[in-house]
Amino acid sequence: MTKLITLISDVVQDVEHPLIRTSLQSAFDQSLTKLDAIESSFTTLATSVASSNNLNVFFHNWSMTNNSAIGLSGFCNRLTMRWRSETNGVGNAQTSTKYMNALSHLNRVTDEDLGATGGKLHYDLYYQMATMICQNDDWMSRQHLMSEGKEFKQWKDRCMVKDKDLFMGFLVTLVHEVYTHGEVEYILPLFDQWLRDTRSFNDKERRRCLIWIDVHTKGTERNHFNETLQALPDLCSILGRKLEDYQLVNLFSEYLSKKANVMVALKEQIDQNNQPIYLEAQA
Ligand SMILES: [Fe+2]
Ligand SMILES: [Fe+2]
User: What count of Cα atoms within 13 Å lies in the side-chain half-sphere of residue 235?
Assistant: First the structure.
């Protein structure tokens, strides 16, 4: 049993909506080997002597799978565009209230990301973490983009801001938020130990480096997932969609598969070039 599935199932089990709960659980249960591979990519990173190129590639492509606030903001823009075109910007009170309810839940998912609660932009916190670990910001260069990272981002962006069916953006956000809960909770202690073992950061510097992960833990992503869920009834009504019409398990599994593709590719490029940190100690 992977740690990711335990962390994620904890949240999924509390979902009241039966079809969402069972579909998410089935998708994660069916993706155990993928989750195992994702965990392995993070543990490989944290137990290997990664070259600067490995680190640059890792942080560039990992960022393709997170930093999702722009996509969700674009999705919300599409909702208000739809509201305008449907109602000429006036609308009846009942329809407008449904749009406002859905948006008020979805906007809460990106509050911290966009600095709306007064904190730093999460884009800047990721930059801080990656740049401290990589020792400069070369990791930002597009030359490090792997086909798997590009494929994940293009697929997710398509679901969020291009797919004619706006409901796809909602479904992908749902699986993304609950998966991310597992990922950040899993990697925080792992990265903390990694930095203690391999970097000369003092406690304050190490905490500063890990703020991006830390701010997403302790229930942040769980809350984002629950806020997303609360938009469901109004979105179904606004968009005229029914959950039953979607292959939910397939869609959630596709997300996990594409995520695993990125992380496996990252593990492989580290494996090709590195020796485990503890090789001598274990011998
Ligand atoms: Fe964030
Ligand atoms: Fe989130």
Answer: 25
**Nearby residues of 71 by Cβ (< 8 Å), 6 or more positions away:** 156, 157, 160, 161, 169
> What is the 112 CA–ligand 1 centroid distance (Å)?
6
Q: For the residues 161-173, what does the mean pLDDT come to?
A: 98
pLDDT recorded at residue 50: 85
CATH at 210: 1.20.910
CA of 49 to the centre of ligand 2 (A): 30
Residue 234, domain extent:
18-44+71-270
Full-model pTM: 0.94
CA of 123 to the centre of ligand 1 (A): 8
Q: Identify whether 246 is part of a domain.
A: yes
How much distance in Å is there from the Cα of 56 to the middle of ligand 2? 24
CA of 246 relative to ligand 1 center, distance in Å: 28
* Cβ neighbours of 6 (radius 10 Å): 12
Per-residue pLDDT of 7-61, as tens digits, reads 999 999 999 999 999 999 999 999 999 999 999 999 999 998 889 999 999 999 9
Q: Which ligand is nearest to the CA of 125?
A: 1
- Count: domains in the chain: 1
72, pLDDT greater than 60: yes
Does a structural domain hold residue 77?
A: yes
User: Does 91 fall in a domain?
Assistant: yes
Residue 244: which of 4, 23, 16 has the closest Cα? 23
